[in-house]
Amino acid sequence: MDIYDLVNEPEKQLEVFSDIIKKMNNIGDYEETLVNILSEIKNIMLTDTILLYLIDQELYNLNYEMSIGPLGSKFFGSIIDGEKPLSVRAYTTSASLYSNNPQDDSAFIPIKEILVEDLKNILFVPLKARKKNIGALFLINKKDGKFVENDTIIMSLLSNIVSLALINKMTYDKGQSRAYEVGALYEMSVSINKCETIEDILNNNISIVCEAFEAHRVSIILKDEKGMFRFKAGIGIDEEVLKYGVITTEDNVLGEILKTKKSVYSVSVSKDYRFKPNKTLRYTRDSFIASPIIGKDDDIIGFLCATERSINKAFNLSNLMLLEMLAQQISENYMHVFLSEESKIKQSLTEEINYTEQLQKSILPSEFPNKKLFDVAATSIPSKNIGGDFYDYMKLKEGKYALIIADVSGKGLNAGFFMVMTRSVLRVYASQIDNPAKILEQTNKHIFYDSKKGMFVTCFLAIIDTKNKTITYSNAGHIPQYLVKKALVNEDYITEMYVGGKPLGFVESPSYKNKKISYSKSDTIVMFTDGVTETFNENNEEYGENKLKDILKNEYDSSSELLKDIVDETIYFRADAPQFDDITLLIAKFL
Fold first, then answer.
1. Please, are residues 587 and 526 in contact by the beta-carbon 8 Å criterion?
2. Beta strand pairing status for 132-142 and 288-294?
3. Please, are residues 429 and 182 in contact by the beta-carbon 8 Å criterion?
């Protein structure tokens, strides 16, 4: 069949398309389907090699995805910079482009730099889905001569099938990736309950990283008591290197991380100026990724590095975000076990309780960034050494922030550890899902089976959208929280934020709902646990909501002043009566 018959004969088009679609339907694997479609197009178009590149929607680069043909292996991990003509064309136009003299065509310089004289002619075809450019195909070296205008017409038809298969694969990959990410983060967050030593926790966590990134070479590097960086765990690294242990951070990629406090990823170590020449000899795969491990005081206490992927793909920005989250969880796990080991050395129950108290305090935020947007103050006063209350503050994407307050049933060590686990799981989902109700639902799925009999958590979660000045919130059995609107002079100055929902870990599959309200400058969110309103004095009288609301009528210059006043008032009210419940407050005034 002459392929150019496809241009003017719909029957021929239908025949070819039907044949391709039948093959698509007979394959269950999305990647294999895409490979088969590209192979079929390569045969139809009589080309030597076909390349598939995807658009990075943040940087507008073209990133190599896969290839069919003998020249494809030269392109693994390659990126066409967003400022170069081909990338610009890929995300701004739907028109194809071909050249039978690419050696003198400036548009095809990125391809020519890789193939040099092996490049005879080339056809560029953009891929589009839902009115959005998502990638590009490159057909390299037509076997029977030159590319002509009819080739672009045929490929404009065939590209629709590629786009459909690509969207199916991307949707599947995104779902799988999200599942792997959440699974890896969850496995890390609960590993502190399985591992007793630092060596155990690091070896356990590094295995999780290996699986999550499909990498054969992963290392955890931590600072020792002398300030030297040393290998603490490694997979796929020479025993002699691990034994020596000491890592230099001068004039290399780790030095850049120390300087910038930012993660890095490299598509090609051999072409990256940040790597010393001898580094390239150690890698059989060129792609590399590394993230700082941050301690409590925002100091870099180590690095998490991965390379040698088992799949034929370079690391990307999505991988970088996951690595940063895993590195932070490793930091929390390391500090947890480190303090635990110190506690065991002292062989004292009192010291173990003090350690747990210290751990709890260490994971509660003590500083709140973005002071231009919020004035935030918080405190948690346990009724015993170890409490079950906690609060949290998280910066999300696109000007959004999460505020969380929660109350674990019970007191003591069990409640303390259940609190740590619940907080970790909440943080995992809050970093992934922009929906308070969904965050609570997913968190409940994980902690329900890990909760001991009779243990549950009430939780109020709010996501603040600073661009649209809205608060979206959901509630898992927690008492109503307050939005104080100082602009109002009548008795409606307080809006009670409440929506019904079961506590986390209470039932297996509860459903949660969201509510949304608007806020204005100088409004204040007052979040608290029932230890505030259910403070009792010696006469068994309850402090109650009315006394709290009376305090909120007053004007305060800062959130910390309001917080101090509430705490002082409850202490004064209680007098010599014992504190029966934890008192936790998180107050945020909008600036």
1. yes
2. unpaired
3. yes
* pLDDT for position 472: 97
Continuous H helices in 191-263: 198-213, 239-244, 253-260
Q: Please tell me what DSSP assigns to residue 478.
A: P
Whose tokens are 């088969």? That residue is 36
Rg of the chain, C-alpha, whole Å: 29
The answer, yes or no, to whether residue 32 has pLDDT greater than 70, is: yes
| Angle formed at CA 584 by CA 583 and CA 589, multiple of 5 degrees | 135
Q: What tokens appear for 239 in the block?
A: 């025993």
Non-local CB neighbours of 361 within 8 Å, separated by 6+ positions: none
pLDDT above 80 for 451: no
Q: How many CB atoms lie within 10 A of CB 517?
A: 15
DSSP state of 104: G
CA terminus-to-terminus distance, the chain: 71
Return mean pLDDT, the chain. Answer: 84
Query: DSSP for 313-353?
Result: ----HHHHHHHHHHHHHHHHHHHHHHHHHHHHHHT-HHHHH
Give counts: helices (H), strands (E), the chain: 16, 22
The SS3 of residue 365 is coil
Nearest to 504 by CA among 455, 548, 561: 455
What b/e string do you get for 94-127 counting C-beta neighbours within 10 Å, with b at 16 or more? eebbbbeebeebebbebbbeebeeebbbbbbbbb
Answer whether 0.85 is exceeded by the pTM. no
